[in-house]
């Protein structure tokens, strides 16, 4: 937004007015501050709330503690931490145009962001693999995707995310050279050279994107072929009904596939384009990074709210029926 020369917004403000080393900050009106804080706070609270519902649902109800849902549970934990830790801090930095949390947190916080975002993305890949095995290798699913193996995959996801991102930050001297992260007081930057940006682009975006797209495409065509095979085996009396069900399943599978891929790409592509474009300003990167964080906002809607059990469990949680000691053994879905 452009302001005239006599605008009060053109007055120079400093992050730390009493320091000669202070960075400048963007001047805002009280209404702008209030509106921005309400906006970012609302997104953060809703992200935490919806992911907390997923966590409570799967943790409380025994029937929901399947290998598949364990991935969704761990994904919800990662997304809840993004909503409860990353979003408030990044929201404050966008509103204030300054970093007020000190050098120590400036050194540590980028690692938290990278680990949580990578873990969230890793869980999406594991969920895709789980669904691939369930649809394309149904006879091997029970032996392949056990609870123990799901837990092992979850641990692997978190550990690999931590090791990869700590290595990335150390190699680029973000952890052991804090002076490199700021040129003035009130600034906190994540600096990664172009070569490592390309490497990170491949491992953190292109590769997961290719895996997700390929697996969901295979799942869609396999599900369609199975539906057609079932329809062909039905008696002539029920053929029309079964055909309608088959076409409905095809449309639902296509819709889910489209939503997953579209949201994933829309949340991630703008951010990676911005960090690879030299003309991109830091404020542009901060704003577009929120699109990436929004993936944690919509993940529960895509991976949980489309499941019938989630709506049933919400009713039990909201009405406090889960306080009953026997409620954990309730059957939320028909056997």
TrEMBL record:
<keyword id="KW-0812">Transmembrane</keyword>
<keyword id="KW-0297">G-protein coupled receptor</keyword>
<keyword id="KW-0675">Receptor</keyword>
<dbReference type="InterPro" id="IPR017452">
    <property type="entry name" value="GPCR_Rhodpsn_7TM"/>
</dbReference>
<dbReference type="InterPro" id="IPR050569">
    <property type="entry name" value="TAAR"/>
</dbReference>
<dbReference type="Pfam" id="PF00001">
    <property type="entry name" value="7tm_1"/>
</dbReference>
<protein>
    <submittedName>
        <fullName>Trace amine-associated receptor 13c-like</fullName>
    </submittedName>
</protein>
<comment type="similarity">
    <text>Belongs to the G-protein coupled receptor 1 family.</text>
</comment>
<feature type="transmembrane region" description="Helical">
    <location>
        <begin position="150"/>
        <end position="169"/>
    </location>
</feature>
<feature type="transmembrane region" description="Helical">
    <location>
        <begin position="201"/>
        <end position="221"/>
    </location>
</feature>
<dbReference type="GO" id="GO:0005886">
    <property type="term" value="C:plasma membrane"/>
</dbReference>
<feature type="domain" description="G-protein coupled receptors family 1 profile">
    <location>
        <begin position="50"/>
        <end position="303"/>
    </location>
</feature>
<keyword id="KW-0472">Membrane</keyword>
<feature type="transmembrane region" description="Helical">
    <location>
        <begin position="108"/>
        <end position="129"/>
    </location>
</feature>
<feature type="transmembrane region" description="Helical">
    <location>
        <begin position="34"/>
        <end position="58"/>
    </location>
</feature>
<feature type="transmembrane region" description="Helical">
    <location>
        <begin position="285"/>
        <end position="306"/>
    </location>
</feature>
<dbReference type="InterPro" id="IPR000276">
    <property type="entry name" value="GPCR_Rhodpsn"/>
</dbReference>
<keyword id="KW-1133">Transmembrane helix</keyword>
<feature type="transmembrane region" description="Helical">
    <location>
        <begin position="256"/>
        <end position="273"/>
    </location>
</feature>
<dbReference type="GO" id="GO:0001594">
    <property type="term" value="F:trace-amine receptor activity"/>
</dbReference>
<keyword id="KW-1003">Cell membrane</keyword>
<feature type="transmembrane region" description="Helical">
    <location>
        <begin position="70"/>
        <end position="88"/>
    </location>
</feature>
<keyword id="KW-0807">Transducer</keyword>
């Amino acid at each position: 937004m452009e302001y005239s020369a006599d605008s009060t917004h053109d007055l120079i403000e400093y992050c730390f007015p009493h320091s000669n080393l202070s960075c400048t900050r963007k001047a805002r009106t009280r209404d702008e501050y209030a509106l921005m804080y309400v906006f970012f706070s609302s997104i953060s609270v809703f992200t935490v709330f919806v992911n907390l519902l997923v966590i409570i649902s799967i943790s409380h109800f025994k029937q929901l503690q399947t290998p598949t849902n364990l991935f969704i549970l761990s994904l919800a934990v990662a997304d809840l931490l993004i909503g409860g830790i990353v979003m408030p801090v990044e929201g404050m930095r966008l509103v204030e145009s300054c970093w007020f949390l000190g050098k120590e947190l400036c050194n540590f916080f980028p690692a938290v962001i990278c680990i949580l975002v990578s873990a969230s993305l890793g869980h999406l890949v594991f969920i895709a693999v789980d669904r691939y095995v369930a649809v394309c290798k149904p006879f091997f699913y029970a032996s392949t995707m056990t609870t123990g193996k799901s837990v092992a995959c979850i641990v692997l996801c978190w550990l690999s995310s931590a090791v990869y991102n700590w290595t990335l930050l150390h190699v680029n001297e973000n952890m052991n050279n804090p002076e490199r992260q700021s040129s003035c007081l009130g600034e906190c930057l994540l600096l990664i050279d172009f070569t490592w940006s390309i490497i990170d682009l491949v491992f953190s975006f292109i590769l997961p994107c290719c895996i997700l797209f390929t697996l969901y495409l295979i799942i869609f065509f396999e599900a369609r072929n199975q539906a057609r095979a079932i329809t062909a085996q039905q008696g002539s009396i029920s053929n029309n009904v079964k055909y309608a069900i088959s076409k409905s399943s095809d449309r639902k599978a296509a819709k889910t596939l489209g939503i997953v891929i579209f949201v994933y790409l829309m949340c991630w592509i703008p951010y990676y384009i911005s960090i690879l474009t030299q003309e991109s300003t830091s404020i542009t990167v901060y704003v577009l990074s929120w699109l990436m964080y929004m993936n944690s906002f919509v993940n529960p809607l895509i991976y949980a709210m489309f499941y019938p059990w989630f709506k049933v469990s919400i009713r039990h949680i909201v009405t406090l029926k889960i306080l009953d000691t026997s409620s954990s053994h309730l059957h939320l879905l028909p056997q």
